[in-house]
Each structure stands twice: as structure tokens, then as C-alpha cells.
DNA sequence: CGGCTTTGACCCGCGC
DNA sequence: GCGCGGGTCAAAGCCG
């Protein structure tokens, strides 16, 4: 059983899957990178705004290691519904290309700057200080007084309706909760309309870290798990990680890339720390032949290919049997 | 016992 | 105003 993580390009619930189907129907060769892969927030940040975040660890540290078997990492994408990004930028279309990169259908479609899915998602404020919780606490104090305050709070919330940036992945896996190196606490589960599969809500357990993620299984393809990360980790991956993984590219690495935005190489981590390399569970490495062939073709005569060979362990380029 | 999951209730925004 | 759907809370229970 393989686990595939696919770009959601502005994944918006069901629509994302349509996109997925579109890609497949067009028989596009998707960029694959197998094995556990970290989608480092710095990568995102670098695409969105140079100074967006400069945390050492990176905002989103996605290191999928879903199962004992291999995973195929597709394009991560950003749901830039957040004005936070807008404030920093920026020509989203172009930058998104860099993020999603995948050339092919994804990159063409992309444009990833999508509008917010709408309601319900407005109250993603930091920590427990969401408007909702505030209101609830106040309501617990009882009285009409709270009601009036409620209105005030609501207005305030409306004023600072800042949505966190989101990145979504579609992962073909039997495992619902993909291991990504961080520790998560499940704080809710909801049935999804038109889907027999529930959506789970997780929050980073690190104190003061307000990163959340939603995990749901596609109703159209039960083998696909949709993971949506929201906000950015402001801390490194816990050292007590339960699984091995490697990091993705740092922002600088990404920015300095000589690859064109349309290159299918966007998903391939381009730099690793030694530490990270040592953590790579080689047994799960599994490079998609098509992808490799494509990459070889693209970089065979270029410095990039050599660079990649240097940066990646040989196992990355191991030909699949 | 601490951390995590489960789950029903609640709140909010939006569309009609 | 009402209903719906998404998101969150928090008590209870589970587990190592």
C-alpha cells in the first residue's frame, strides 16, 4: 500500500477533490517524490513573502510518515485566504507557482490564491482566545450583560477577522492521522456533509503554538486523506519525535533555486541537515519511476541535477525495481 | 496521574 | 428570523 500526498491547490473541501480528478483525467504526470517528506514552512514563507516568518524551524513542518510503506508526496499548496499573506505581498500567482510548482496541470491551474471557503473559518485566532471561546466564557458568567458584551466581542472579532494561512495535502494512505513530527491533540470531530467520513480537528500541543490541522478522508476516494494545516509553528519539531523524518528545504534554499517555477521539482526537498538525513527511514524510500525519469530528463545536463545528487542521498535516486 | 481521545453541546457566519 | 454547516469547547472516559 502506498501513501500518496498530493497537492490540493487551494483545497476547498470537495472542490479540491475535483481538482484532483481533473489532474488525473488529464493524464498529467504529477511530480512525485516518495518517502517521508517535510513541507517546511520556510518554504512557504519564502514564496509568500520574504519576511513573512523567519522562525528557525519553519512554520509548517510537514514530515509525513504515514505508514510503514512508502508515501508519494505531491504538491503542497497554500490556501492563501489569509489576509496575513496579502499584507505581505505580493504577486500570489507567480509565487504560488513556486510553491506548488508542479508544472503540469497543477501549476497551470494554480493560482492558488483562493478566496476563503467561507464562514465558520473566520474565528481562527491564536490560542484559546478565539472569539468563540471568549464568548462562551463570558456567557458562562451568565446574564444579559454577557449578551451585550457578546455583540461587542463579535464586532471586535469581525474587525480582526484574520485567517491563518493554510496548506493542504491529499495523501493516499490508510492512515488517518499522518505523522509529521509535531505533537497534536485532537480537539474535535465533525461529520462532513456529503461524506461518510468525519473530519478531525487537531491542535499542536506545544504551548503557545496555535497551529491546527484538519484531517478528513475524501468521500470520493476513501484511500485519500486530506490534511489541512493552518497557521505556523513557532517552535522546532519536538525532539521527542516518535518517528523519523527529514526536513524540507529552507526558505533560502528554495528562493535560490535556479529551477523555474514551472519545474516539477517543486516538491522535492532541496536541502537537508545532516541530522535530518540520518533520520530518513530508507526503507520507506520509493521514488516514482516516472517522476524520476522526468527529473532526470530535466536535470541531466544541468547543474541542478548534480546539485540534487549532492543534496539527496543516493537512495533518493534509486531506481525502483 | 497526565496526556490524549471521544462526543455532545454550543457558537458563529452565511444563505434563504 | 431560521436553519444549516463548520468549528470549538469541555466533560468524561481511556490508556500507558
From TrEMBL:
PANTHER family: WRKY TRANSCRIPTION FACTOR, WRKY TRANSCRIPTION FACTOR PROTEIN 1-RELATED. It is found in: Nucleus. SUPFAM superfamilies: WRKY DNA-binding domain (SSF118290). Belongs to the WRKY group II-c family. Keywords: DNA-binding, Nucleus, Transcription, Transcription regulation. This is WRKY transcription factor. Its main location: nucleus. GO terms for molecular function: DNA-binding transcription factor activity; sequence-specific DNA binding. SMART domains: WRKY. It holds the Pfam family WRKY.
Amino acid at each position: 500500500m502506498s501513501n500518496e500526498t498530493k497537492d490540493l491547490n487551494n483545497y476547498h473541501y470537495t472542490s479540491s477533490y475535483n481538482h484532483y480528478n481533473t489532474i488525473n483525467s488529464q493524464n498529467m504526470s504529477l511530480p512525485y517524490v516518495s518517502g517521508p517528506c517535510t513541507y517546511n514552512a520556510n518554504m512557504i514563507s519564502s514564496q509568500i513573502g520574504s519576511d513573512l516568518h523567519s522562525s528557525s524551524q519553519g512554520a509548517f513542518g510537514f514530515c509525513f510518515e504515514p505508514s510503514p510503506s512508502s508515501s508519494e508526496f505531491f504538491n503542497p499548496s497554500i490556501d492563501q485566504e489569509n489576509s496575513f499573506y496579502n499584507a505581505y505581498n505580493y504577486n500570489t500567482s507567480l509565487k504560488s507557482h513556486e510553491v506548488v510548482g508542479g508544472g503540469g496541470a497543477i501549476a497551470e491551474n494554480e493560482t492558488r490564491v483562493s478566496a476563503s471557503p467561507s464562514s465558520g473559518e473566520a474565528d481562527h485566532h491564536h490560542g484559546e482566545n478565539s472569539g468563540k471561546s471568549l464568548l462562551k466564557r463570558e456567557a458562562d458568567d451568565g446574564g444579559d450583560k454577557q449578551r451585550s458584551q457578546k455583540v461587542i466581542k463579535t464586532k471586535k472579532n469581525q474587525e480582526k477577522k484574520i485567517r491563518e494561512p493554510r496548506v493542504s495535502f491529499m495523501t493516499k494512505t490508510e492512515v488517518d492521522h499522518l505523522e509529521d513530527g509535531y505533537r497534536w491533540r485532537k480537539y474535535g470531530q465533525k461529520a462532513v456533509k456529503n461524506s461518510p467520513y468525519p473530519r478531525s480537528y487537531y491542535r499542536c500541543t506545544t504551548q503557545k503554538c496555535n497551529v491546527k490541522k484538519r484531517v478528513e478522508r475524501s468521500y470520493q476516494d476513501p484511500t485519500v486523506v486530506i490534511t489541512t494545516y493552518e497557521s505556523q509553528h513557532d517552535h522546532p519539531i519536538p525532539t521527542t519525535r516518535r518517528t523519523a523524518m527529514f526536513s524540507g528545504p529552507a526558505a533560502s534554499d528554495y528562493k535560490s533555486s535556479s529551477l523555474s517555477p514551472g519545474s516539477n521539482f517543486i516538491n522535492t526537498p532541496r536541502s537537508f541537515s545532516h541530522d535530518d538525513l540520518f533520520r530518513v527511514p530508507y526503507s520507506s524510500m520509493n521514488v516514482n519511476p516516472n517522476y524520476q525519469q522526468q527529473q532526470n530528463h530535466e536535470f541531466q545536463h544541468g547543474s541542478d541535477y548534480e546539485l540534487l545528487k549532492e543534496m539527496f542521498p543516493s537512495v533518493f535516486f534509486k531506481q525502483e525495481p
